[in-house]
Amino acid sequence: MTSPSLFDDLPPDPLTDVVHDALCLAASPRPRGWLLQMARWLLEARGHAPERPPSLAAVTEAMDDLVQQGRAQRVEGLGVTVPVDAAWHTRFTALMQHPAAPHYWRAFAAANGGTPMRPDGEPAWVRLPTAADRVGLLRLVLYSPRPAAELMRLLEGPLVEASSAATLTAALTEPFLRPLFDSLPAEHRGLLAHLVMAAQADTPAALREAVDDWLRRAPDEVPPPVRCRLAAHRLHAGDVPGMHQALVGLAGPLIDLFDALALAHAGQWPQAAADGQAAMKAAAKGAGKRQAALPQELVWPLVLSLLAQPEATAWSTARKLCVAESGSRSPAPHSFWGLWAHAAAVRLGDQAIDPQAFAFASSQALDPDHLLMQASRLLLAAWAGHTPGGWTALRARHLIDGLADLGQHWMAALVREAAVRLGLMAAADVHAPPPGATPPAPFLAAPREAWRDALAAIAALGGDGTPDHPLQAAVPTLLWCLTLDEEGRVQAVQPYEQPPGARKPKPLTLNKVKASARLDARDAAVARNIERSRWSARQLVLDVTGAAQSLVRHPGVFFHDAPGQLVELNEALPIIEVARRLNEAGEQYVFRIDPPLQPATPPHLGEGWFYADERQAEVERRNSLRVVRDAPDRARLIRITPAQRRVAELVSQDWAVPVGAKAELEAALKVLAGHFQLHSDAAAGTEVPGESRLRAQLVPVGDALQLRLVVMPFGGFGPAVPPAVGRERLMTVHEGLSLASRRDLAQEAAHLRSVLDALPWLEGSEAGEAGWLLDTPELALQTVEALPTLPAIAALDWPRGKPVRVTTVAPHALAVRVSSERQWFALEGELKVDDHRVVGLQQLLQMAQRAKTGRFVALGEGEYLALTERLRQQLADLSALGAQRPDGVFALPAAGAAWLEATLDGMQVDGDNPWRQRLAALQAAARLQPELPKGLRAELRSYQAEGYAWMARLAHAGLGACLADDMGLGKTVQTLAMLLARAELGPALVVAPTSVAGNWLAEAQTFAPGLRAAIYGDAGNDRNRDASIDEAGPGDLLIVSYALVQLDAERFARRTWATLVMDEAQAVKNAATKRAKSVAELKADFRLALTGTPVENRLADLWSIMNMLNPGLLGTATQFNERFGSPIEKQQDAAARARLRRLVSPFLLRRTKAQVLTDLPPRTEIVHQVQPGEAERNFLEALRRNAVERIQAMGDKGGPDTAFHVLAELTRLRRAACDPRLVAPELGIVGSKAQEFETLVRELVDGQHKALVFSQFTDFLKLLGRRLDDAGIAYQYLDGSTPGPERARRVAAFQRGEGELFLISLKAGGFGLNLTMADYVLIVDPWWNPAAEDQAMGRAHRIGQQRPVTVYRLVTAGSIEERIVELHRDKRGLADGLLEGQDEGKAIGADELRELLLGTPPGL
């Protein structure tokens, strides 16, 4: 901040310069009266006020001087002004750095006049009649430093007249004074940026650049709202990575919404819509409001993701969202959200199209403030299939260019797509996004026939809610309750509505139904029976007879005594049964009508029927209808005609017809067949063959499906009866002909049995009828798929709701084209559904992913594909290994060629020449039968020879390999065989832990003396380090530690090695470490990883190793975690585990000792509990309680800091369980474990045994060593500080018998050592990772061991060690489940660590 001496160089009375400063502060034409007031204030503020204030004449003279000097210009009628040029920038910046700057605005306001002042000298409000006044004064406020709270107080108080969006933007950015902006306090700067960015659809570029720089310099200073605005701009500009970068460190529903919008940009519409709506709901809940107030720019992409889907229910959801955003129940289609809502309503059939809503708005032309609205008109017109008026190719091009100029590249691409669809532009006229920007996914699907849209919209009638499953039937807006009397006559009809989320429907008044502006068409038919009462103009009544007839086939009917059961109400004829009976008079035909058509009692009409004639007419109308309830979910409505009533009257007279009256009976039956459903034992009418096959009637019920099997003996018309029950003979009238048919009841029963055998999930149905409720979508679709294939099924009928069609597809229906690139295979393909429709490969993969584990994928419009189990598995595997690249191509890493060939088996595959050549090379490698190199001085066991051949084949194919044999199975000698075989191809490099480098050298000299082996950097190596690398040639084997590879990474990376071996490859399991990155940068023709534990803690270990061997095979680390890590470790996903096993099995070979070494002595593991003394027990408990209190005091914050503290407390408890002296030596408590250790060791030594002793803590090992010294027991010692040559010497000494015990730190000696002299292993403190312990045991239990090996784990009773042992089962399961096919195992995480400490048993 500049000091007050800024103006000290001015003359005592520089009136001309003072007037010039006043004009600089105003930056607009000012009259002399205004300048007089401002000049007097400035002189006083500078301390230069003369005894006599300047006069108006003096100011006028100063103005003239400025004009003559060219420093000011005269504006007719307004006064004078100064040009806003570089000189103005310099002077204005200097003026704003004066301490008086925060008060300039008050002087400005006072000079304007007409401003009432408060006692504190601040205006109560400011009179600002012109735009220049408002911008000029506000500029002084914005660019002068002040607290953010004060700035907001001024904008909402005295300066409210100047706080409009346009004024804010102009004051800050016209011009934008970057140096002043950067000098403002961070809080002030953030508020200014937020105010302008929130007010403007397009943030001025200069301000955005300033905020960009600010975010790069000090991201923590930039307020979250500003970062979100910046992220939104980057998203719409196509910079999705930049969007994520702007939001780093932020969390919450709004950030989840941005993630959803990124999915929308990539075309993952269903997931984007689901995640976006969930984020909006969470944001609203967090704000305590029904709806979150979000910027328009964050909502329309979400609406876009709903409109992009083929289901009408998604369009309906989009419409509801737009209406909610508009703030009006009926937004005008000429408003932004009204237009989007109108387009959805047009596509749904709810509104007639308003052509003007989509036409080019000449009044707005291409005004930058209205570009988004114009773009929406063209885009939504194309989506709705409407050709809008007024649009031309030139206007579309100008619109695209205007959007691009504003950075709206997403919308620009959408407009171009719409213009192409509407024929305004050619498809080749592509809108180019800026460099580095990601083009958005296409939005407009292929044009659909109008009838498809119409049927989809009809299916969505009766509710705008998105169904839980595509099978869900369209639920009508209203429900209708029927009340029946004892004879089945309708007594009352009551409308109900089902409020969202409510369990019970709510009754509606007739007035509300009548007044409803939007009724479902089926409800409207019922509502037409509402009329005004004759006795009261205000009262409405319902004609229940007419209403009941309108409810036929209505999907929302239920009965008063069964409110939770929807009923299928169909119209039917009454049944008349003509049965042959033998009685005293002989054989006769008797007649029976069902239901009885003659009323036994008069109907109850209720009140209001005062006139006898009207009452009688209503009685007749009520008696003319009967509702027969056949099943809880099915009923028949029968309209009784006068002819039927007359027949009923005749039948009620209880007469019978002799069997001999054939002529008269046949004539009567022909007439009856036209009025009744006739079941007759008497022959009449034209006899036709009966159809005994079954028809499946399917009705959607919620997200379930009602199935009923019936027989229709006349085919597609006539009565439908339950199979195998009822009368044999049926009659019907069809097109004026009387037809008769004889049913084959036995054949119907056989057909029913065959269906039940084929569909075993169909069990016995209620009421003896063949009816079932298929209550899961998977079961329903499985049934719909199977029924048409059964010989016993004649047809599928859909009496109500949209039919569901299921097409079964197998791999041979999928045609795939494979094209080769250097590191990738690009896949294109299509599945032929029928002669008129195909589904692209990427679309099929997305649909299969949405179906998750099911075989059925929705095509939309009630159509499904039923994938065979094999095809479903193939698609899941492709999704797991492949990914869509930024250029839209679905690609898989070249390393997966063999796997890809197997996965595409059975499909129609067309590959390019490089693909075919690659397959030929793989087949050649598979046929390879390599011979063991002659220079190998060892006899390999059969499994070792197989391992060598396996490595040779992968090397021949140019693929990396991971030999993951159990510890002690001779991975080194198998590798030396491989190195000998490849020696002529160039030098080999072995990277290994320091502790085993000497062992590699010794074994190479023993088993492969033909190799010139040397240790890099070793004193015995004559070459210097550069020469060791640069001069290495065929036959050379250079052995180096991981530490030195990291240190000399550039040296090793500057050449290519014929073979690279990574021994104990778990050392590079963390891909983020410098060590792993250094090894990954090494260039080699063949890479081999050796490890006994490819999965130690998490599956990420395996990814890191496999990515070293075959980069890209398992995708990126993020993709691997999404596809395999989280599903397997957190959700125990067996399918994901099996898929990962299939992916890595060609490149990973693992054999266990139990599998291949039947002659290896057994290994016994014993958990040896050590009982602590009373003092030690009390100490351990007190230590645990203190740790629990400290962790509980941290709360449930989570995060890395909490995990670090939990782990630190656990480590302290583990050390105390070893010996209290490790954490509190001042107490002098000697641990029971050390005493028990000495007792156990003495027994072992007395029994002529030798033992390896492992501990994680070197200070505990040294404490045990001192105890051995005191007892006179000889031992060897090895930890991480032991130099490499000394390690090899001590190992050799122990193998020669020098020392009864070998004390080894777990990490330093857990691998690479051959210590078969020992037959006992003592693990004196259990470690989290059982794999590390297994490695340690393997030092003794390996090839060459002649005696059984016994392992003791010393565990202090009641301590944290007991809980660690409980973890070992799960940890072992993670590796075994992947490598050996077991179905258990999970990784340990921060939550498990916390549970260990707080005392909750793991897994509970």
From TrEMBL:
GO terms for molecular function: helicase activity. This is DEAD/DEAH box helicase. InterPro entries: Helicase_ATP-bd (IPR014001), Helicase_C-like (IPR001650), P-loop_NTPase (IPR027417), SNF2-like_sf (IPR038718), SNF2/RAD54-like_C (IPR049730), SNF2_N (IPR000330). Residues 1236-1386 form the Helicase C-terminal domain. Keywords: ATP-binding, Helicase, Hydrolase, Nucleotide-binding. Transmembrane segments: none annotated. CDD domains: DEXQc_arch_SWI2_SNF2 (cd18012), SF2_C_SNF (cd18793). It comes from Aquincola tertiaricarbonis. Gene3D superfamilies: P-loop containing nucleotide triphosphate hydrolases (3.40.50.300), Tandem AAA-ATPase domain (3.40.50.10810). It comes from the Bacteria. Residues 952-1112 form the Helicase ATP-binding domain. SMART domains: DEXDc (SM00487), HELICc (SM00490).
